[in-house]
Amino acid sequence: MNNPSTTKPCLVETQQGFSVFYQNKPLYSKYAPKDSILKVIDNLQILPNTLILCFSPVLGYGLQELLNKAPEDSFILALEKDKNLYDFSLNCTESLLPPILENSHKVFYANPETSLQIAKLVNNIKENPPFSHISFPKIGNFKRVLPLDFSGGAKIHTDFYQEVTSLLDESISQFWKNRTTLIKLGRLYAGNFFKNLQDIRKTQFQNLFSLTEVKKLVANKQILVLATGLSLDDFLPVLKSKLLNTNLREHLFIIAVDATLPVITKYDIKPDLVVGVEGQFAIEKAYIGFKDSKLSFASDLLSRPSIKRILKGKTSFFLSKYTSEAFFEAFSQLAQQLDIPRIEPLGSVGLVAVELAIQVRNSQQKIFCCGTDFSFFPGKTHSKGAPVHSAILANNFKLSSTEQFGSSFNSGNFYITGKSSYQNPENQELTSKALYNYALHFTNRYSKIQNIFDLGKFGIETNLPKCDYADFFNLLNKTPYQIFSTTSSINSQQEQVILEKIISDFLSSQHNNLLEIKDILTGKKDATNLEQLLQKCGYLYLHFPDGHTGPKLSSDFLKRIRAEVEFFLKITKL
């Protein structure tokens, strides 16, 4: 074989077929171009529901053999980062790719500019070209990825292909983690959503306010976000001392996650806004002692409806996007009509508190975080006074320990070098897989946003700029402020009537859809539009183990739907 020196892909003939020469090197064997990839495919064991990644297929050798071997529920995503090789593979007369692409619905071939484009494709996020028009299989079809290098072209962009593999592997893993959560809590989320709407419809409107109103309260103040990490144990005594002996409280707007309420009130610190996202009964422990406290509350529409009735203060709502299913678009549109902001799924209430702080500030206002640690000491997982810590003290007796070594050393927990470890190398901080992922998300989302600072002396490094206590209090001293009173954004009878009508119309529409589904399932109506109705009411089956695949008209599926319809009919009835 003669090796031409060229920067363009060049077809060259060998003893056993064609190879490609590119960037002064062959992309296949000089002697038997097909053998290497065919041996790899022959030795593969491909599990069901696999997304197979074929990197740099060039002439398509082995692709048909892979198709023949792959399970029916698998899919092949062929990628070529190099534009020269991509064009060559589609136009070369010896390439096997064009006929395979034309005849198979199980292969997609792409030339992406970034790994994020591929991640969005696989996650079915249709935002921008080049793949917004592509109908890709739902991510729920896959349980794993299988990366394969199909030619030497994969070595030209090794880092890119590794990044794609990592992103898609994480995407699929996260999807199934989310599915586990939805199977457990999906019904609860939808139920809380409707119950909260009913409460808003019936509430005295002077007890409601929007995040637009919070912006007025925050104006000319600095924002302090308090979560439940161990950093609070060091910071709160100092904060209490400063607030007692100065007028700094007027310069500060405190946003606290709900689980910190028992912690900060031990130091006589009252938050300006409490944030709650938890939908389950257990969170009510955080509110013991706060009945009729009149605290202002920022509530997820998916969170436990009873909390706002416990506090009896003013309530503002937001909506977490807990699914991408079609029915949630109707939820989002309603929230928009009600001036309720939608936020991305963040998982941790600490992240939600920071997210809301960003939404209500102006760009010059600073946000200071403390307790967003995402780690803990062996035997101690939360700051003193948190519900978990208080429960242990309440159940303590001579033969029990006040330290939580059982939960500290759960399977999957691991040691990290935290912020406290830099000050004292003997300090060993622990974290869990879930907390570590929250910390990564926190870092990726907030570390590049201006004017967000970290006051904590404990926890995982999140790359926020550090601020020591002295600088924090000095800044507060220099902050001009203006006091606003919390007023309802619903300030007229006409606006009240409009709000009631918007919610009533939405609930009536959902209730009527549910009644029609019930009539079809009980034989009172024709089933012609049943599947369409089920898609509109996807909350009926989202929490089914097989709910992510969409509605089915099988007897087993419809029996389960029938039981769910009764539950949602009760809570959507006006």
Q: Which sheet architecture does the biggest sheet show?
A: 8 strands, parallel
Specify the overall morphology.
globular
Question: Helical amount among residues, as a percent range?
Answer: 40-55%
Strand order of the largest sheet: 13-12-11-10-9-8-14-17
- Overall pLDDT score: 88
CA(first)-CA(last) distance: 81 Å
Number of strands: 17
Uncertain regions spanning at least 5 consecutive residues: 388-408, 485-490
Proportion of residues in β-strands: 5-15%
Computed Rg: 29 Å
| Discrete helix count | 20
Structural class: alpha/beta
Describe this entry's structure for a reader.
Residues 388-408 and 485-490 have low confidence and may be disordered. The chain has 20 helices and 17 strands. It has helices at 35-42, 63-69, 83-91, 97-103, 115-122, 158-202, 211-218, 231-245, 261-265, 306-311, 327-337, 349-360, 387-394, 405-408, 419-423, 433-446, 469-478, 493-521, 530-536, 555-572, and strands spanning 10-14, 17-22, 25-26, 50-55, 75-79, 107-110, 144-149, 222-226, 252-257, 273-276, 297-300, 315-320, 342-343, 367-370, 414-416, 429-431, 452-454. Helices cover 41% and strands 13% of the residues. It is globular.
